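Workshop exercise sheet. Pairs work together: one partner reads the sequence aloud, the other fills in the structure field after running the prediction. Swap roles for the next sheet.
Pair: D.N. / O.F.
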Amino acid sequence: MWRSLKLDLSARKAYWQEVAPEEVAFGGRYRTGRILLEQEAWRLDPLSPENPLVFAIGPLAGTGFSNANRTSVGTRSPLTLGIKEANGGGTFGYALGQMKLAHLVLQGASPDWVVLRLTREGQVFFEPAKDLLGLGNFEAAQRLFAAYGRKIAFALLGPVGEYLGLLSGIAFSDTDGRPSRLAARGGVGAVMGAKRVKTIVVEVPGKAEVWDKPKVAESVRRYAGLLREDPLVMQFYNAIGTMGMADFQNAFGGLPVRNFREGRLAPPEAFRMGGQYIAPLNRARGGKHTHACMPGCVIQCSNVIVDEKGEEVVSPLEYETIGLLGTNCGLTDPDALARLNRLANDLGIDTIETGATLALLMEKGEGPWGDYAFMEAKLKALYTPSEEARFLAQGTARVGEALGLKRVPVIKRQAISAYDPRVVEATGITMMTTAQGADHTAGNAPRLETRAMGVGEILEASYTAQVIAAANDSLGLCVFGGSVTNKQVAFITESVNAALGTALTPAFWRELGEGVLRLEHRFNHLAGFSHEDDRLPAFFYEEPVPPKGYTARFRPEDLAPLYERLHQGS
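Structure field:
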């Protein structure tokens, strides 16, 4: 029997409720959006006790089904002021799936800082978190394991979230216990901090209960086989990981460089900030370049980066971090970036928003481009809630406004991801139109050369990518299996039916994806957003980006056909 759990933090009470299998199927990002809309969270101050914080998983979580254990975190964002869903991998969703806990809702605010602990038997404990306050995530994680044993998973708030910094995300434990898989974007950590929840600890039962065990076991084997036979999965994600996208975008001209002034950091043969350079160097040093962040994943696109002595620095180093905390700040040394990434993980912050914010300080002239010492000092300052830290932790839009800058790369107050919208146009349209703020994960088409395409084709590419991303997020599936998953809709639906005992048809996939988009756009409309909020910052329309010399072509008034589809039924 699947259940949901609502925790009234103010009264310290827990309320369990049975969840129908069909509702479990509409999980993850769909469930977070549905709950936020039903509770009219658009009316609420994002940092008020009334604003819900929702954790939701997909129907295959807890099983060995590869890359199906992501956790969606939903709330009204204190960064964008719109709807937000941020998701992450790791073991937390796996543990919830084995608990058959479809979604968890935090409401109210605890009188004191707490550890929320869920036992295998379904008991809920509100325990004092005093000894964890102010600690970086790595030390806090070690204390959790010392207190509760190794057979736990957790969602952990870093020190920036404690003082409600909008850079803060929520860190999930990975398969080795690192607090390094973040639901990072939109300030979701600040909402958890406003509720005075330091961490949620879940005991891992060790086995998953499904409707038809033989069929699910066969689905697990078949899906793993399909992934292992797929060239994109094995030759790109498994072999190099997401950092391979840095090589592509550098060559393509869509890489953010020095606050989006250029699209290429160096000639491809001299580029050292991508997988072609980093992967062989890391392997030669003894690092891992094939690593699973969640149980059962065969894609294993994660990595463990080591230094020249073979000692671990960070896991993982990913493309978005390379793009925003790296090249966008003028960094050219991957070892320096890895150390900064480690600090960011310890702080529990979004490397996209953080990198974009630091680049604005360099834009203002407060530090030279690529100055590691300057960047390190700014990150270390975030550990304690000083005036400087609180200022930086507001995020890119608010820092840019306070500094009086005109070149501030945000949409709906959220930093643009590592795809220059002048060059990677379909992804740029996604970042403009999604209710999530400037978020590439809402529908990415990073390799699409669009200048020879018609406008209708480009809009269709963005819309299709958004539907697919929303469906995957709702099923708890990592999008890096998409070259298989998105072609196997009937099989995925059969796998969900085997797990839940439902009778869904393949039409469920598109219904799920489109349903998410309409929920989210409805929420933002009610929150006061208009299509004018989708416009790119002016400099993208005015400044040609080298080496291609493109300026942005699309404005909200060009996107009417897309808006019509996004608002159907809302």
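Discussion prompt: The chain has a mean pLDDT of 97. What would you look at next?
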